[in-house]
Amino acid sequence: MDFSQAYQEKLTTPEEAVQIVKSGDWVDYSQTCAIPVRLDEALAARHGDLSDVKVRSSITMQPLQVVEAGEGSFIYNAWHCSGLDRRYIDQGKAFFNPMLFRNVGAYYRKGYAPVDVLMLTVSPMDAYGNFSTGLTNCCVQDIIDVAKYIVIEVNPNMPRVYGTTGDHIHISQVDKIVESDAQIPTAAAPPATEIDRKIAGYIFPELSDGMTLQLGIGGMPNALGALIAESDLKDIGMHTELMSDGYLNLYRAGKITNMKKEIDRGKGVFSIANGSRDLYDFLHENQSIYSAPIGYVNHPDTIRQFKNFVSINGCIAMDLYGQVCSETAGTRQISGTGGQLDFVTGTFESENGKAFLAMSSTFTDKAGVVHSRIMPTFTEGDVMTTPRTQVPTIVTEYGMAHQVGLPTWQRAENIINIAHPDFREALIQAAEAQGIWRRTNKR
């Protein structure tokens, strides 16, 4: 069947396509690289005609015009924060939308997250009328299933990525089509610092041949990836929420084969990809990698099926009880829960699973004052991302603090041992005052 006629019938301009939006609507932009640039511009241009339009997305990688130019008509809500989303929230131009990543698809399916209009970027149509959702699978299928109207922005720069549910949308499901040649936004990998390399050095001996690896993003995962690429480790598997250039480097070094995975054998699996143009080109029609819904990738029932699963993510701060914050600084939104709790939970169920949460021991504020990331208690509105009952192993540049199964006094000792030396005595005094320090503890 030739779908070209249907394509031409639905093809229109961005300005015409966004007329489908009404005041009071919920408009979903999908997430990260799938955010539709031309449709966003056209919708923002209607700011004088519309009111109370709620726009939902996350991990914004380039300015959103409904925020930049549409103030007063649009309310932006982010599931997870990029640096740009954080700035919008700081400026009072956006709101954070708390979620547990493995459940976000169910929020749509169960009606907690209504969608009047879905707008997203896709790859060009194939001979069978399908448009690949490319770099963002996540919960796209769930949004497609509940959206009243669907408008796609077809962009030849979006790679065609194979996958399971959520990897494509058929032209019969689409109401309007616009075309764009905008560049798909890229994200530069942050360089590894000396602290990153020290942290990676503590984690590296815990790794083994045949493991299945989940890496977060940032300098430390990049440092760890460099160690793996230069090592004798082999037959690594990829099963990750977010695929970044760290994985691309491991593929090119021949470290990832996916041949020892207990499920999805021979396939590297991700839900969102975010990185360089090289990464996007590598994913284009690459049959050794597929995208899958976040509800599958992040679900503990999936993760537990891997015998040797290793999960490595970052965090912002922790207290002496072992509670971890990975998303706020006080009441200021920095990031989001994302999949951290999903992977910590699932990795514990893996037969030989190992999960690590990493951070530098200190940070320096704008006034040049150094603060400990390890504090006696959380008291300033910090959001707990991972409760102490599920925190695995914390790593700083001073070592590793195991937490599982330990009483409060052992947790406190382990935690203080990886704090910056300048803050350890004050932390010991706090632990004593809080009743979680024994006379036999090491000073």
What features would you describe in this structure?
The structure is a single chain. The chain is α/β, with parallel strands linked by helices. The chain folds into two domains: 155 residues, Glutaconate Coenzyme A-transferase (3-Layer(aba) Sandwich); 240 residues, 3-Layer(aba) Sandwich (Glutaconate Coenzyme A-transferase). 27% of the residues lie in helices and 21% in strands. The chain is built from 16 helices and 24 strands. An eight-stranded mixed beta sheet has the order 13-12-11-10-14-19-23-24, sandwiched between helices. Strands 4-3-2-1-5-7-9 form a seven-stranded parallel beta sheet. Helix 11 links the parallel strand 12 and strand 13. Helix 8 crosses helix 9. It is globular. The mean pLDDT is 94.
Proportion of residues in helical segments:
25-40%
CATH superfamily of the largest domain: Acetyl-CoA hydrolase/transferase C-terminal domain
CATH topology of the largest domain: Glutaconate Coenzyme A-transferase
Instruction: State the end-to-end distance.
Output: 76 Å
Number of strands: 24
Number of domains: 2
Taken as a percent bin, the fraction of beta residues is 15-25%
* Rounded Rg: 23 Å
* Biggest sheet statistics: 8 strands, mixed
Shape: globular
- Under CATH at level 1, the class of the largest domain stands as Alpha Beta
Question: What's the average pLDDT?
Answer: 94
Read across the widest sheet, the strand sequence of neighbours is: 13-12-11-10-14-19-23-24
Structural class: alpha/beta
Question: What is the second-level CATH architecture of the largest domain?
Answer: 3-Layer(aba) Sandwich
Give the count of helical stretches: 16
Low-confidence stretches: none
